[in-house]
Amino acid sequence: MKTGRKLFIISGPSGTGKGTLISRVLKRLDDVVISISATTRKERAGEKPRLDYYFLSEEEFNEKIRKNEFLEWANVHSNRYGTIRDVVRDHLRSGNDVILELDVQGALSVRKKVPNSILVFIKPPSSAELKKRLMKRKTETEEDIELRLKIAKDEIEFANKYDYIIINDDLNRATEELLKIIKQEKRGKTTTIL
Ligand code: ADP
Questions:
Q1: How far is the CA of 188 from the centre of ligand 1 (A)?
Q2: pLDDT value of residue 3
Q3: N or C: which end of the chain has fewer CB within 10 A?
Q4: CB neighbours of residue 167 within 10 Å
């Protein structure tokens, strides 16, 4: 039975475990890909262009805004992030379901354009645990961590607009929950068209 292609949008505070969960479910699913975002932020050590992000200069990013090439874009933590429409479209056209990892503003603005996209919010078990995870990751300064924790509080307010909320307490349990949601939604026949 041929089913339609779906667009999954995953959000949650920085450090809540989105990247970890997504990479775990991708290993266990066929025909599901993560669509890479564009950003003006600096590459972190170990990141690879076109694998983690499309790293763009401020000028390149502005050019794409002008040409209306983004499905959504936003300023987050003083950098710009955006989803290039053609990147997502190509994945869907080649028969894959697509996962987008987006901040709350981005997720809600894509949902307006693509009403049958599926929104999943990943919540940390507590703000103390979120802080611990951000510190463990060692990619942000202490000041940055405080900023991210403040933003997390605002983001969590939007969780009730999502189709599913997963609390990432135990990693194995949360992975199974996300996997189950994706498999279940994949069975639906509606195709996402961009
Ligand atoms: P995000 O992509 O949401 O910013 P990451 O996937 O980078 O978050 O995870 C942040 C940190 O928390 C990482 O060090 C990761 O290994 C850890 N982590 C993720 N999920 C869990 C979990 N359920 N329990 C404990 N630590 C976790």
A1: 30
A2: 62
A3: N
A4: 16
Residue linked to tokens 């790293």:
55
Pairing of strands 7-11, 54-55: unpaired
Hey, is 191 helix, strand or coil?
A: coil
Q: What is the pLDDT of residues 159-186, one digit of tens each?
A: 999 999 999 999 999 999 999 999 999 9
Where are the chain's structural domains?
A: 2-193
Whole-model pTM: value is: 0.90
Q: Which residues pair with 123 in a beta bridge?
A: 167
Alpha carbon nearest to ligand 1 atom 10, residue: 15
Q: What is the CATH number of domain 2-193?
A: 3.40.50.300
**φ, ψ dihedrals at 25, nearest 5°:** -75, -35
Is the minimum distance from the CB of 19 to ligand 1 under 6 angstroms? yes
Contact 91, 118 (CB under 8 A): no
Q: Please name the residue whose Cα sits nearest to atom 22 of ligand 1.
A: 171
- The torsion region of residue 141 among left (phi > 0), alpha (psi -120 to 50) and beta comes to beta
* Atom number of ligand 1 nearest to Cα 122: 3
Question: Two tokens at 25?
Answer: 């479910």
39-77 confidence digits (pLDDT tens): 999 998 888 887 889 999 999 999 999 999 999 998 877
The SS3 of residue 171 is helix
